[in-house]
Amino acid sequence: MLKKFISFLLPWSLRRKLLISWFGYEIHPTAKIGWAWVFPQKLVMKERSKIGHLTVGVHLDYIELGMNASIGRSNWITGFPGSANSKHFAHQIGQREPKLIVGDHSAVTKQHHLDCTNSIVIGRFVTIAGYQSQFLTHSIDIYHNRQDSSPISIGDYCFIGTNVTVLGGSKLPAYSVLGAKSLLNKAYDDEWGLYAGVPTKFVKHLDKTYKYFTREEGFVF
User: What fold is seen in the domain 27-207?
Assistant: First the structure.
């Protein structure tokens, strides 16, 4: 814990070196972390990736940010370590992966909650837009009376509207839009779709000529 506090207080150029030396993190020279408390078991940050101020990332095994990927300020990223000696999730030993992967050129904006008790995998060129969305991979299984978890998958080139809830076991296929305030609670496979509602339903197919889906850079001007 002392090493974490020391590294947190240092300028980024020195902090990066200590995070690599002390914790074995892989942080590219062009990557950057702001004044954020991000300490998974393993951290991988590729070229020009960044994590904004006041973001917290704790109690999970792995975080990876691809090239030009970003996690904005004031996000809460948490989980339950796979190696934890606990009755919680005992039935999923060896099956549960507490990790967050954010693909190349993807962005998680700000003030979102990502529960990585199980894996959250976000593809390339994805935007988690707006504020206050929740990605919740765990809940209580009332049938078996126990904590349970399932992964979440977001495909390439997806757009996630503001203030959505995404539950464990959900999948949003590539080239899709999830409407604002929607509840995604199941896995879908049809790409190029608009999904919306509580609970989410397929609304319509999207035009493949939309420029969002052909971007070669993550930033939207």
Answer: UDP N-Acetylglucosamine Acyltransferase; domain 1 (2.160.10)
